């Protein structure tokens, strides 16, 4: 649904060039919630703003729902007709909501519809439906200044949905909210994803956001995606940095030097099986449990366990094979690493934003 290829972006600021994106290849599948996570300055905002060409990439392509946006005519300051039409199918929500304080909630949601030339009655009806969808029907006549942060973001989401988009971009939509409001906004995004079949691309610096709503994730660093894939695949990849962040095992014991320490990850069907006792019985070995935890990640139960088997890795080849045959992900600590799900890299470039679009106006 969203593909970027070799995306680069170089900003020029006071004669200095900053490579914000250095060759980003992103692939977001239709109907999924995809999270991009990374520390400050990693290039997340630049990436998401390049997806709807709010920022024009220096090089590379952006394709959304089969339309190559980077091939459509338009300048940095003013998009052409086709690009404006394509953008209407891409909603965007912002960290600071970007609502117009002089307009009521209803009028804020109607704003993008006014630009499309929809008549007043149809605008009112549509805005009413959208406010209902986000649970704010009773606030239609209120002004943004009278709303809580969570309510403002609901208005931002309703406004983003006014063009019946297939894709919703979320630029740190919950970063300005308290934890409970964050949960309710993430639940709303998840509901909209399911009810409307909406593909959601969000950026965040919080791993908890990835954990609670995303199907897939990418880790950005220095303008590059260093790791990406479905969470289930990442969790099954021994060396995945994201998996370790999502599900840290650092507090677990590390075992004795003469034993073999295994990290076992189980999800879905395998999560309910008593594999430790089966292993002990089948091979008559004493198993030392160093740590275990179960979490819900992307709505799916995932467990991780660190165990120690007596003897060397060589001595335990058969029991390890037995566990893997059960469908469990088994990583031997200290053994050769497996490669993460994907790795990409490359170079970068410049531009201005389109303030009108940030206020929900696809001009
Ligand atoms: N308009 C701009 N002009 C010059 N440099 C910029 C501009 N916007 C971003 N940058 C630089 O590009 C790099 C990536 O910034 P970006 O905002 O995309 O990162 P981020 O991961 O979203 O960070 P944060 O989480 O702090 O928003 C940073 O070095 C930043 O200083």
| Topology-level CATH name of the largest domain | Rossmann fold
Taken as a percent bin, the fraction of beta residues is: 25-35%
Number of helices: 12
The tally of structural domains comes to 2
Global morphology: elongated
Each distinct ligand: adenosine-5'-triphosphate
Number of strands: 14
* N-to-C order of helices and strands: EEEHEEHEHHHEHEHEEHHEHEEHEH
Query: Which consecutive residue ranges, at least 5 long each, have pLDDT under 50?
Result: 336-356
| Largest sheet geometry | 6 strands, mixed
CATH architectural name of the largest domain:
3-Layer(aba) Sandwich
- Computed structural class: alpha/beta
> CATH homologous superfamily of the largest domain - what is it?
P-loop containing nucleotide triphosphate hydrolases
Based on CA atoms alone, the radius of gyration comes out at: 24 Å
């Amino acid at each position: 649904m969203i593909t970027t290829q070799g995306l680069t972006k170089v900003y020029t600021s006071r004669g200095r060039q900053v490579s914000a994106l250095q060759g980003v290849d992103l692939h977001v599948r239709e109907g999924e919630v995809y999270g991009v996570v990374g520390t400050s300055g990693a290039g997340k905002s630049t990436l998401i703003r390049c997806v709807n060409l709010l920022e024009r990439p220096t090089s590379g392509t952006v394709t959304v729902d089969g339309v190559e946006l980077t091939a459509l005519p338009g300048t940095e300051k003013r998009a052409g007709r086709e690009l404006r039409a394509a953008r209407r199918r891409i909603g965007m929500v912002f960290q600071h909501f970007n609502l117009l304080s002089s307009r009521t909630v209803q009028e804020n949601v109607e704003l993008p519809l006014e630009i499309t030339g929809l008549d007043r009655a149809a605008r009112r009806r549509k805005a009413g439906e959208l406010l209902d969808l986000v649970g704010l029907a009773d606030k239609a006549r209120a002004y943004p200044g009278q709303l809580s942060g969570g309510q403002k973001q609901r208005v931002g989401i309703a406004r983003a949905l006014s063009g019946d988009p297939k894709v919703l971009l979320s630029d740190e939509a919950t970063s300005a909210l308290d934890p409970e409001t964050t949960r309710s906004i993430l639940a709303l995004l998840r509901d909209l994803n399911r009810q409307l079949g909406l593909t959601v691309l969000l950026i965040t610096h919080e791993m908890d956001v990835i954990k609670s709503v995303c199907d897939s994730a990418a880790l950005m660093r220095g303008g590059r995606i260093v790791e990406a894939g479905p969470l289930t695949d990442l969790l099954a990849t021994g060396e995945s940095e994201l998996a370790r962040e999502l599900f840290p095992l650092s507090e677990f014991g590390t075992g004795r030097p003469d034993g073999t320490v295994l990290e076992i990850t189980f999800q879905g069907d395998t999560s309910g099986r008593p594999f430790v006792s089966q292993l002990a019985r089948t091979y008559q070995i004493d198993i030392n449990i160093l740590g275990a935890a179960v979490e819900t990640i992307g709505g799916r139960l995932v467990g991780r366990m660190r165990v120690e088997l007596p003897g060397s890795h060589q001595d335990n080849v058969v029991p390890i094979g037995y566990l893997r045959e059960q469908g469990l992900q088994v990583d031997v600590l200290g053994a050769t690493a497996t490669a993460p799900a994907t790795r990409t890299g490359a170079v970068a470039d410049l531009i201005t934003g389109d303030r009108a679009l940030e206020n929900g106006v696809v001009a």
